[in-house]
UniProtKB/TrEMBL annotation:
It comes from Haloquadratum walsbyi (strain DSM 16790 / HBSQ001). This is DMT superfamily transport protein. Residues 13-146, 161-294 form the EamA domain. It is a multi-pass membrane protein. It is found in: Membrane. The chain crosses the membrane at residues 12-32, 38-58, 70-91, 97-122, 129-146, 158-178, 190-210, 222-241, 253-272, 278-294.
């Protein structure tokens, strides 16, 4: 059982992760006009991987995987979580028929996909019926929050949307497999080598797509966007992600994809003057209800301590 301090720290890390990944949508949007998409993602993880390898060298006594299971875990992360997810997502979003709202709805299927994979690979992490209903409510909340044009989601860009769905599937499967392999590898080492391996794979995809470094425009916006994505959203974000993956399990940690749109909307409101709509507020409420159902036991355990602190 987690101590109160550890529980609050876990909640805090979850919120920080959702904030980092949610606000990353602005940075991606800012950088894409200047850097080819898959090359953009590869450069992001070149930088993040080097930073994390340096951190692993300084903080752990095993900066390089020593076992077959360790390299298998790295391979799963590099192929599915980093290269598979980001390459498929960025390629899919280049289709003009795919709006950001449509992409967000498709990616938000990740927790439900994770639940399905967990039933196969992680039987101990299966959800109860009420918990599954909470996950479904969260998905509904994301759809309302995104206010998508249903005709636009269904029609046009079918191949691109299948690619984005494949991206969400890759991320969900990668989360479950890295949890299943449980290679007893330091998180910093796992993250560093997975990022570097994923970046190498994406560089290969970038070359196959004909992307070139000469096409990059090194503007201030491009540099700031790349720096934010590499350091905050990637190096720091995935350090938190893999740490929480160990504590919460694959299903609960992937619910961050439900909370991230909230921070994306808030960041858009603050920095881009995008005023939240009624649909945004309703979406927030539905997501909150879904989380309440999913975490009902933890909330019930916490209420007596909150009452005691207030008295």
């Amino acid at each position: 059982m987690r101590t109160p301090v550890r529980r609050y720290r876990t909640i805090g890390l979850f919120i920080i992760l959702a904030g980092a990944w949610g606000s990353a949508f602005m940075a991606i949007k800012a950088g894409l006009p200047y850097i080819p998409p898959v090359l953009f993602a590869a450069l992001r993880y070149d930088i993040a991987g080097i930073l994390m390898l340096g951190y692993a060298l300084a903080q752990t006594d095993q900066p390089v995987p020593q076992t077959q299971s360790g390299w298998a875990s790295v391979g799963a992360g590099a192929t599915l979580i980093f290269a598979g997810y980001h390459a498929l997502l960025f390629i899919g979003e280049t289709d003009p028929a795919v709006t950001s709202a449509a992409a967000a709805v498709i990616v938000s299927l990740s927790p439900m996909l994770t639940t399905g994979f967990a039933r196969v690979f992680l039987p101990t992490e299966r959800l109860t019926l009420v918990g599954f209903f909470g996950v479904v409510l969260g998905l509904i909340g994301v759809i309302v929050l995104s206010s998508p044009d249903l005709q636009n989601i269904v029609g046009g860009g079918a191949i691109a949307k299948l690619l984005i769905f494949a991206a969400a599937t890759a991320f969900a499967l990668g989360s479950v497999l890295t949890r299943r392999l449980d290679a007893n590898l330091p998180i910093e080492t796992m993250e560093a080598w997975s990022m570097l391996g994923g970046a190498a794979l994406m560089h290969g995809v970038s070359l196959l797509l004909g992307e070139s470094f000469t096409a990059i425009e090194w503007t201030t916006e491009a540099i700031l966007a790349l720096a934010y994505l590499a350091v905050v959203a990637s190096a720091l974000g995935f350090l938190i992600y893999f740490r929480l993956l160990e504590q919460l399990g694959a299903i609960e940690i992937n619910l961050v994809s439900y909370v991230a749109p909230i921070f994306a909307a808030l960041a858009g409101w603050i920095f881009l003057s995008e005023i939240p709509t009624i649909a945004t507020v309703i979406g927030f409420i539905i997501i909150f209800i879904g989380f309440t159902l999913l975490k009902r036991d933890a909330i019930r355990d916490e209420l007596p301590q909150i009452r005691q602190a207030l008295n």
